[in-house]
Structures are given as structure tokens and as C-alpha cells.
Amino acid sequence: MPQTTASSAHSKTALPRGASFAAGMSLAMATLVLIGLGSVSHAASETDISEEEAAYRRAIADRASRIVSALRLDEADVEQRVTTLVADQYRALRDEHDSRDSSLEEADGEEKRVVRLESDRRVMELHRRFVARLSTELDADGVVGVKNGMTYGVVPITLAAYHRLLPDLSEEQRRTLRAHLTEAREYAMDAGSSKEKHGWFGKYKGRINNYLSAEGYDLKQAERDLAARSSQE
């Protein structure tokens, strides 16, 4: 029985040159089609959102852009990264607050307390990671600028108001006021609405007023004195 050599076996099983090329092209085209379908599917998932959600994303993107633009950063790529960080933080907080509120609607009694505690823990972690990431992009003043931007500039505005109301405050008293307002800002950053943000500052302003009263200041009289000074300016 005649033996088949390796070369003759290859010649019997190999496709003609043209057919081999066509088969290779078919495989390549199939791969490209699959990749293309995957890209289309991904694009669809990115755009498959409600009009309300799209409007929300545009709003927080604009808000984040205005906050970061106020920092007057020199590098465009840093500005873009920080803007993305701020917008992502707003969105993450919104999602957490929505999840918490949904769980609270289904919870009773002690369950509500547990839901709030667990949500607070997650929000604290979001806050910690956000500030840490900001710190890799910005110096300390830049991080403070973002925090003030996210809280309507209440800290510097309120400090200036107290200094104007009570111009004879000591350095120690001024530091105490700043410490209270700075702590309030950390909580206000994570609040889900303007009302909640201002609520945190209102709480700490109450503490400040109690502190100043204990220090011997009559705030009502100070307001009258300020009005008199202002009328003479």
C-alpha cells in the first residue's frame, strides 16, 4: 500500500490560496461585527436613560464645572479630572440618598434607625474617598475651594458676618467660630439638598451663638451697634 508523505497529505487537506484568504477575511469580519455590536450595546446602555436623569446629569456637570472654574487652575487636564470627581460625588450621594429613602419607606421602628446608621456609614466613606482623591489633584487651598463651592460659600460668608458684627473678637474666639463652621461644612457637603445643607450650618450657628453668649456677648445689642455703625458709613 503506497505511503502518503507529509507534503502530499498537506496538499490534500489545505485550502486553495484564494479560499484560505477568503476564510481569513470572513473570520476577521465576524470579529469586527461582534466588536461593533458590543460597542453599540455599550453606547445604547450609556444613552438609555430617562429625560429626567439626563437633565440631572447636565445640571450636576454644569454645577461641578462652575465650582472648579472658580479655582482658576492652570492645567486643563487637572481641571477636567477635578470636575469629573465633583460631578461623580454629587451623583454617588444622590444614589445613596435615594436608596436610603427607599429603604426607609419599607422599614419600621428599629429598622429605620439601622437603615439611617448604615447609610451614614456609606456616606462617610464616600466623603473620605472623595476628599482623598481631591487631595491628589489639588493643594489644601484648592480642596477647601471645592468644599466651599459645594456649600455655597457659607463658611467665609458667615465668618465675615461674625467679624463685622463683633469686631473685637479675640483670635481664640475667631478660631473657635471657624472650627464650628468648618465642621458644619463637612456634613453639609454630603447633604442631599440646599435646605439640608443650610440646616447643618443653622445647627452649628446655634452652637456658635451659645458659645458667644457664654463668652459674655450680647448678640442683640451687637446687632443694634452694627446697624448704628452702618448708618454712619
TrEMBL record:
InterPro entries tied to this protein: DUF3826
Pfam family for this entry, one: DUF3826
Top-rank lineage group of the source organism: Bacteria
Name recorded for this polypeptide: DUF3826 domain-containing protein
Naturally occurring in which organism (per UniProt): Pseudobythopirellula maris
